From TrEMBL:
Similarity comment text for this entry: Belongs to the bacterial ring-hydroxylating dioxygenase ferredoxin component family.
Lineage, highest ranks first: Bacteria, Bacillati, Bacillota, Bacilli, Bacillales
Species whose genome carries this gene: Paenibacillus violae
UniProt keyword terms in alphabetical order: 2Fe-2S, Iron, Iron-sulfur, Metal-binding
Pfam family, one: Rieske
UniProt xrefs under CDD domains: Rieske_RO_ferredoxin
Cofactor(s) recorded in Swiss-Prot or TrEMBL: [2Fe-2S] cluster
Protein name as it appears in the record: MocE family 2Fe-2S type ferredoxin
Rieske domain ranges (all copies): 6-103
Coiled-coil intervals, chain numbering: none
C-alpha cells in the first residue's frame, strides 16, 4: 500500500443515514459512518476502551456509542465524549466518488 493511498471501502448506498458499517482491510478494521446530514466519515474500528467493534454500536448523528460500555465518540474528530472512554479514536479522510466510499490510510 502506497502512502496516502485511497482504498475503496464500500458503495455509498450500502450505508443508511445514521448508520455505521465495518470495513476490514489488510489486517486492520475500520468503521465507516453516514451521518443524518448524509456525510461520510471513517475511524478505526475498535473502541479504545474495551476493544469492541464500533459497527455494532449505536450511531446518533455524529456520535457513535460503543456496544459494550456505552462510551461515546465523535465520528468527525474521533474525540472521546463519554466515560468510560478517554482515548480518542484515529480518524481517516473520506471521499465519495461515482457512488463509492474511499478512505485514505
Amino acid at each position: 500500500m502506497a502512502p496516502d493511498e485511497w482504498i475503496e471501502a464500500c458503495r455509498a448506498d450500502e450505508i443508511e443515514q445514521e448508520d455505521v458499517i465495518r470495513f476490514d482491510y489488510s489486517e486492520r478494521s475500520f468503521a465507516i459512518y453516514r451521518t443524518d446530514r448524509n456525510d461520510y466519515y471513517a475511524t478505526e474500528g475498535f473502541c479504545t476502551h474495551g476493544k469492541f467493534h464500533l459497527s455494532e454500536g449505536l450511531d446518533m448523528g455524529n456520535i457513535i456509542e460503543c456496544p459494550k460500555h456505552n462510551g461515546r465518540f465523535d465520528v468527525i474528530t474521533g474525540q472521546a465524549k463519554r466515560a468510560p472512554v478517554c482515548i480518542d479514536l484515529k480518524t481517516y479522510p473520506v471521499k465519495v466518488e461515482a457512488g463509492k466510499v474511499f478512505i485514505r490510510l
